[in-house]
Amino acid sequence: MTIHLRADRAVFRFSGPDAHKLLNDVVTGHMPTEPGTAAWWALLSPQGKVLAEGLAGWQEDALWVDVHQSVADDFFKRMKMYRLRANAVIDDLRETHRVGYGVEPAPQFVSHLDRLGAIEMGYRIIAPVEATADWVGDDRDYQAARIAAGIPQLGPDFGANEAFAHDLGMDILDGIDFEKGCYVGQEVVSRMKHRGTARRRPVVVSSTDAPAGTSVIAGGRDAGSVGRSVDGKAVAILRLDRITDPSAVTIADQPVSVTLPTWATYVFGESSVDE
Fold first, then answer.
1. pLDDT class for 146, splitting at 50, 70, 90?
2. Which domains does the chain have, with CATH numbers?
3. Which of 18, 125, 133, 138 has CB 3.0 to 4.6 Å from 87, enough for a Cys bridge?
4. Where along the sequence do coiled-coil regions lie (predicted)?
5. How far apart, in whole angstroms, are the C-alpha atoms of residue 131 and residue 194?
């Protein structure tokens, strides 16, 4: 089986009697308690902005979490602070383990189905560094698959403290547990849900090779910025209300095509209730 290395991901393992409660009380998603499927989650600032996001899967009596390398130090620091007196151990596995992507599970390693709502993204695979020598050394296949599905990701598409969880579609793709109690940033998430104040949403952009961060222009106005481009496609988090004519959108003065992800419950031209 072919496994593609996702070199920009950092691995942490949470173990101990209070490990599940620690994560479940801090991040947006509902933490799993059995092997199989990983949960999408985000660590938010008190103002509701995404500071880190990734998957968490249960295996070998621990939660295995991955985040983008650019926010790994901050994530580790914050989680140690939130741990306080909890009976939990947080292992930083950045030097010893790697994250990979495969279309099939790898039972010899830590392996979880990567499913966001109804969208299945293959399998997240975590293995010791010495076991990854025969992995394909790039994640282009994974990036192409997630872009086609309209899944934005911190690092390739936006930076820390730039987006709300709703901007990523986490409320639609099961990245937020609306039934559990409080977590960091929960008040903002709840307010956006009940007031319908999400103005920006993921959109798939085609016919572009513009660098990540390039502005997307609609009707002469900046509607947001494009993320990493692979094979001419990228995910952009855009102001829906500014996309009144999807055929008249440009990036760097070049026309592009914009489409909604198959899982979207929103439409172009939509305005939030507070506008």
1. very high
2. 3-168 (3.30.1360.120), 199-274 (2.40.30)
3. 18
4. none
5. 47
- Cα 124–chain centre separation: 13
Average pLDDT on 117-146 reads: 97
**Listed residue (229, 259, 264) closest to 243, CA to CA:** 259
Q: Please name the amino acid found at residue 52.
A: A
How big is the CA angle at 88 (ends 163 and 33), to the nearest 5 degrees? 70
Instruction: Name 52's bridge partners.
Output: 43
**Is there a contact between 132 and 41 (Cβ–Cβ < 8 Å)?**
no
Q: Residue 60: left (phi > 0), alpha (psi -120 to 50), or beta?
A: left
Q: What are the pLDDT digits (tens) for 84-113? A: 989 999 999 999 999 999 999 999 999 999
The 10 Å Cβ neighbour count of residue 250 is 14
Q: Is the sign of the CA dihedral 22, 27, 32, 38 positive or negative?
A: negative
Name the β-bridge partners of 97.
Answer: 128
Amino acid letter, residue 40? W
The whole-angstrom separation of Cα 275 and Cα 273 is 6
- Cβ proximity of 69 and 5 under 8 Å: no
Buried b (16+ CB within 10 A) or exposed e, 1-35: eebbbbebbbbbbbbbebbbebbbbbbbbbbbeee
